[in-house]
Specification:
Layout: H1 2-7, E1 28-29, E2 35-37, E3 43-44, E4 56-61, E5 69-76, E6 81-88, E7 93-100, E8 103-110, E9 113-118, E10 129-136, E11 139-144, E12 147-153, E13 166-171, E14 190-197, E15 204-206, E16 218-220, E17 222-225, E18 230-233, E19 245-250, E20 258-264, E21 272-277, E22 282-286, E23 290-294, E24 299-304, E25 308-312, E26 320-324, E27 341-344, E28 361-364, E29 366-369, E30 372-373, E31 381-382, E32 389-391
Antiparallel strand pairs: 1-2, 2-15, 3-14, 4-13, 5-10, 5-14, 6-7, 6-13, 7-8, 8-9, 10-11, 11-12, 16-32, 17-28, 18-27, 18-31, 19-24, 19-29, 20-21, 20-27, 21-22, 22-23, 24-25, 25-26, 29-30
Amino acid sequence: MAVFCKTMVDGLLLTLSVTLLWWGADGHGNGLGMREVPGRATVNLGQDRDIWRPLIHKTVNLSEISSIKSSFQFRTYDPEGVIFYGDTKNGEDWFVLSLRDGIPLMQINKEDMLVSVVGGPKLNDGKWHTLEVSNYGKFVILEVDGSGGLVVGMQSKQSQEVISGKLRLALGGILTNKEMIIQFGPQMDGCVREGNWLNLSKPWESEVDDLWPCYENIQPGSYFPGTGFAIFNTSVFPVEDDNEVKIELWGDFSQMDGTILSIELPGRERIFALVANNNTKEVTVFGDENIPLNSTFNRLVLTFGAAFLRILHEENESKTTELSVHPLSHPVQLTTWKDGHLAIGGLLGEGGDNIASNFLTGCLKKIQVQGKDLDLDLAVKKMSVSSHSCPA
């Protein structure tokens, strides 16, 4: 286990303290096609890439390791995703720290052992937390804000070997296969800062040119910076016995600009879309007829029935617009709903000349489809969207 101390803990420790976040990580090229990022930099773990691929990583010789402790500060509203990864032996022995349901989850693969443990306080409250991972004898310890959060004990029956070679560290992804005891979604909308990674001075390396910024203040929601959107298959939102489709959106619609959502169904030339115009302070419903709404509301409910479209644009029923629609000309035909696509933050297909096709800029504080919260991390395609936090 002392060996594990020098391997996994060489690959599992971190620290971050406190700093304001108006910027992403500063960095510069290293001449090898990689961007260097300082170890103590503020880093947003969200980024457009393969969902398991680390955002930043580094490789060091085990002989360079002088500390069995790492610490960092971490902040998120995201309940699930990878935070930190380390391995030796080209990924044969590895350690992963992640969140699941907002609670820390450590998983370790070492020789003949595969161990997982989950526990400690929920960390997805949007506040900065100091995490410290260390190794003492047979135990790997995670402390949260100075208190013991999680302890893993390991004892192998195999003879211990002296580990040499390389240690790989990564943030926001993993470098090994995905064979774990507890499966989880890897995408993490969160930030780390003030990292002390095993007392190593070597910078991180990133294949991404521009890291996303970490904002000083954040609030729960999904943030669309005007450069991307999320697409879902409508088959994951089944039509219930009432034969209706209900979509609810929360946010300050007067501060939004661009396509909030669009729906594309097979056999329909016309795409249904909801578009905000920050200049006119209107939100327009584009269907078989176009309906402009004053954007001074914070909640919008669209209910599609077999022969009607109901639009509720406020907290009470007095701000309701209901249209009687012939089933064959319905903006969303329920008979083909299961074979369509729903986009949040952008326009699907061509959409027609009179629909603004620009991506959404703004924050949707909450999204529900068929009465269930929508997690943008589950989209079949997502780009340039912070799925769980917005700048406040």
